[in-house]
Design goal:
The protein has 504 residues and is an alpha/beta fold. It has helices at 4-12, 21-32, 43-59, 76-88, 101-111, 173-186, 204-208, 211-218, 230-240, 249-259, 281-291, 315-320, 409-417, 452-461, 489-501, and strands at residues 36-38, 41-42, 67-71, 91-94, 115-118, 130-133, 153-158, 168-172, 194-197, 221-224, 244-247, 271-275, 294-301, 304-308, 324-325, 331-335, 348-353, 376-384, 390-395, 400-402, 405-407, 422-432, 436-445, 472-475. The protein is 32% helix and 24% strand. The protein binds adenosine monophosphate and 2,3-dihydroxy-benzoic acid.
Length: 504
């Protein structure tokens, strides 16, 4: 948690207002009443159901401070459940639908959860006090509850776990609501906003940047998409006159391709947010012309810090940077391996501290992820432009050390993506007895696949240094994805390792 002097500052600045999520929803219901909040459910109905569900869950024995692993598909039940738990002061632990026995067991064990709330479709076998099914939610007459305080932890969010199992991130009512309100303002949401939630709603991006919670704050309307594919999303955009949605880069590439043949009217869409992983500049430049809407890049993390490009940023900034922080009190350091600030504009490790960035993981796991003075080590390599925008150059752990020469996978991927017959590319390290590591490029072709030799020639012609050319190129139909749909380099590396060990 934050030291007292920081907490006092964040309160004095008006970031932390002392409101809980439960009280916030009550206020929204008073203001927006019969207006539609999400999939035909009004603000008033959502508020009333949250009260009845909180009472019912209390009846099942859930109490303030208990942890409940929540694994739900995109739908209205998600909202009822989280607001019921917020009112009860019980902490949702956000699992994603893609999580299986391995991850859910880890979440239950690590959080010592007493309940697992899910659907019969998604349910996995775990040992837990009780399983609550979303088709039998226990509504009851509302009761007086001794709810949580605004400084309490509201829920446990997950880190992406690009290496290993997800870490648990304690977010308070005060800090998270600040990021939601401020994000809604930056993204210029209002009561005419129609947000398509295409990504899994529990992920930090569609939940809060500004996501579904930002839309509620603005009195707008949420449309929940069961899947993020163009086949599902495009008809919804047309039917509901969607104005804004959020995607991860691999999905954005699929949408751009599909838009060329789209039978649906996408003209209501004003803003496409893309974040979660680096969006290649080549792809960024296509969004305006091909989808007919503006792009916003979002660089965030469940641990806190979120950066946005702004509505009034020039196109060049929107296309080539990952934005700038939400808050004037987000502190950003770009440092070398010894935590010394690099020269302005140089690439370094991003450290951050601020009014909505955690000071430690749940139960202090992985204390090394924080500096002695409370900065979070993001693990990202960034540079700061003279305009104060951040450019993400990669993950420190993913830089490939090819016989001492450092290869940035993102740089090579960016060049590969510029080839007209390449839809997506992912470059990873393979262990090599001579070089230590060598590079392996996975490429998803668009139409007929070029040859590896052709791609090397293409990269050479773009002026890429010879040592950065992929040692091997492999064509695949698609990439393994993380729970939210980012390309899972962990799985790509594991597949290569398994192949090496199997001698194939
Ligand atoms: P997570 O652990 O799932 O919260 O993922 C957060 C991480 O995703 C960040 O630390 C970055 O490495 C990456 N990330 C998120 N947004 C972007 C973006 N717009 N560009 C590049 N990387 C991003
Ligand atoms: O990747 C992320 O975790 C992320 C991306 C964009 C995020 O947490 C966010 C915005 O809030």
């Amino acid at each position: 948690m934050w030291p007292d002097d920081f907490a006092a500052r964040y309160r004095a600045a008006g970031y932390w207002t002392g409101q809980t999520f439960g009280a916030w929803l009550r206020e929204l219901a008073e203001e927006h009443g019969e207006r539609e909040a999400v999939d035909r459910l009004s603000y008033a109905e959502l508020d009333a159901r949250a009260d009845r569900l909180a009472a019912g869950l209390h009846g099942l024995g859930l109490r303030r401070g208990d942890r409940v692993v929540v694994q739900l598909p995109n739908g209205t039940a998600f909202f009822e459940v989280i607001f019921a738990l917020f009112r009860l002061g019980a902490l949702p632990v956000f699992a994603l639908p893609a999580h299986r026995e391995n991850e859910v067991t880890h979440l239950v064990t690590h959080s010592a959860a007493t309940a697992y709330l899910t659907t019969r479709d998604l349910e996995v076998k775990v040992e837990v006090g009780q399983v609550i099914h979303a088709d039998e939610l226990p509504y009851a007459e509302p009761i007086e509850l001794d709810g949580p305080a605004a400084g309490d932890v509201a829920f446990l969010q997950l880190s992406g776990g690009s290496t290993g199992l997800p870490k648990l991130i304690p977010r308070t009512h005060d800090d998270y609501l600040y990021s939601v309100r401020a994000s809604a303002g930056i993204c210029e949401l209002d009561s005419s906003t129609v947000y398509l939630c295409a990504l899994p709603v529990a992920h930090n991006f569609p939940l809060s940047s500004p996501g579904v919670l930002g839309v509620l704050h603005a009195g707008g309307r949420i449309v929940m998409a069961p899947r993020p594919t163009p086949e599902t999303a495009f008809p919804l955009i047309e039917r509901e006159r969607v104005t804004i949605t959020a995607l991860v880069p691999p999905l954005a590439l699929v949408w751009l391709e599909a838009a060329k043949r789209a039978q649906h009217d996408l003209s209501s869409l004003k803003l496409l947010q893309v974040g979660g992983a680096r969006l290649a500049t080549e792809a960024a430049r296509r969004v305006g012309p091909e989808l007919g809407c503006r792009l916003q890049q979002v660089f965030g993390m469940a641990e806190g810090l979120v950066n946005y490009t702004r509505a009034n940023d020039p196109d060049e900034i929107v296309e080539t940077t990952q934005g700038r922080p939400i808050s004037p009190d987000d502190e950003i350091l770009v440092v070398d391996a010894h935590d010394r600030p690099v020269a302005p504009g140089e690439i370094g490790h991003l450290l951050t501290r601020g009014p909505y960035t955690i000071r430690g993981y749940y139960r202090d796991s992985d204390p090394a992820a924080f500096t002695a003075d409370g900065f979070y080590r993001t693990g990202d390599l960034v540079r700061l432009t003279p305009t104060g925008h951040l450019v993400v150059e990669g993950r420190a752990k993913e830089v490939i050390n090819r016989g001492g020469e450092k290869v940035s996978p993102e740089e090579v991927e960016e060049h590969l993506l510029a080839h007209p017959a390449v839809r997506d590319a992912a470059v990873v390290a393979v262990p090599d007895p001579y070089l230590g590591e060598r590079t392996h490029a996975f490429v998803v072709p668009l139409g007929e696949a070029p040859t590896g030799a052709e791609l090397r020639k293409f990269l050479r012609a773009r002026g890429l240094a010879v040592y950065k050319l992929p040692d091997r190129t492999e064509f695949v139909d698609g990439f393994p994805a993380t729970g939210v749909g980012k390309t899972s380099k962990k799985d790509l590396r594991a597949a290569l390792r398994a192949r090496l060990e199997g001698g194939i």
